Amino acid sequence: MSDQEEALAMPSEEDQVAMAPQQQSFGEWVSSEMVKQGLTIPQLVAKTKISYTGIWNIVKGNTLYPTNETRAKLSAALNQSVPTEVEAEIEEKSEISGYTWTDFTPSDIGTVPDQAGVYVFYDVTDRPVYVGKSAKSVRARVKDHQTRFWFKPPLVVRGSFLAIDDAVMCEKIEMILIKFLGKHALLNVQGVVRDMVE
User: Which member of 34, 69, 171, 175 lies 3.0 to 4.6 Å from 39 by CB, making a disulfide possible if both were Cys?
Assistant: First the structure.
């Protein structure tokens, strides 16, 4: 084989990168396991008690960093451990200077963290529409929001959460986010009286 023929037979660096296995996100892993096992979202809903929207958000990549509880439920329902590299990616990318970032589906209270912190609701276009905080439990605060007329798709589709134990820091971060987002956080109205006392 000539040098030219050998060079043509060898994949280029670009081809090698393209052929290398890509690291999966959690949603991609869930999706691939569903395909392998012939499972549908409704079947996973029945096995996990996570809402259809909650699983759909994970599979579609809208929920990148689900809670440990949500990951455990899906892992058990799929009878597979989450691959170490997928867990490592979630742990690495959800860590922000000692704080933990988590995604959740607001309409599925089981996916909402039961911790103190700051949260943001996003609409169907992934635009932030509301910033909130809770010094005790974001789950309780979101449960209170679920009674509101505005708390439904397409206005509230997904949420993100930053765990913060310090109530003063929670307040500061919430105010900073509201000021940054300004009128784009549609549901944050200056001077609104909070109706849930923690």
Answer: 34
